Amino acid sequence: MVEAIGVYVKVQSQMGSIWSSPEPIITKIGPCGCTRRTLTVDMDVTDITRIVKIGIRHGASIDGLIVTYERYGRIESPGLWGRENYGQLTEIILQNNEYITNVTGHIAPIGDTLQVRSLKFETNLNTYGPFGTEQEVPFALPAIGGQVIGFFGRAGPMLEAIGVYVKVHLLQIFLS
Q1: What per-residue confidence (pLDDT) applies to 14?
Q2: CA gap 62, 120 in Å, rounded
Q3: Fewest CB atoms within 10 Å of the CB: 11, 86, 107, 176?
Q4: Maximum Cα–Cα distance across the chain
């Protein structure tokens, strides 16, 4: 679970303000879940404009996850993480002005490993889920003033760990 997040800023004392980089900062939060044995799954978040759609395969656990995003005006996807033909498929299609602000869920031991049991996606406009079973250990992956632009984690036959990439646009803060 993420307990804290920090940001580096440059102090401009002669102007009486704190300035951040004009470029957005992208950081990883997580992962929550299994940290061993399975394949690492990741997204290249370079120049991703927004997440367009999320597909979740779910039943008692999260069987699979597929993320579709926009980059350079094109729609792309890294493919399915987890199992293709298990569980119910639910697709979340985000509006053009909608972005993910928080991902929550639960992890639980199944057999000899931890697995993601549930997921819920909160956006600036809606809440989607929960998908799967909300039991055992809860987790939260908040964007903390930014937006989720990608995911990473571990997947075998099911989704075993999940983390997020968060893009934050820092603003100028004036000191009085």
Answers
A1: 41
A2: 11
A3: 176
A4: 61
Q: How far is CA 158 from CA 39, 41, 126, in A?
A: 11, 12, 26
* Each residue's pLDDT tens digit, 147-162: 999 999 998 888 999 9
Region 127-149: mean pLDDT is: 94
Would you say the pTM of this structure is higher than 0.70? Answer: yes
Q: Give SS3 for 14.
A: helix
- What Å distances lie between residue 138 and 32, 49, 133, CA to CA? 9, 29, 11
pLDDT at 167 over 80: yes
Beta-strand (E) ranges in 111-176?
113-123, 127-132, 137-142, 147-155, 159-168, 173-174
Specify whether the CB–CB gap between 148 and 168 falls below 8 A: no
Residue type at position 41: V
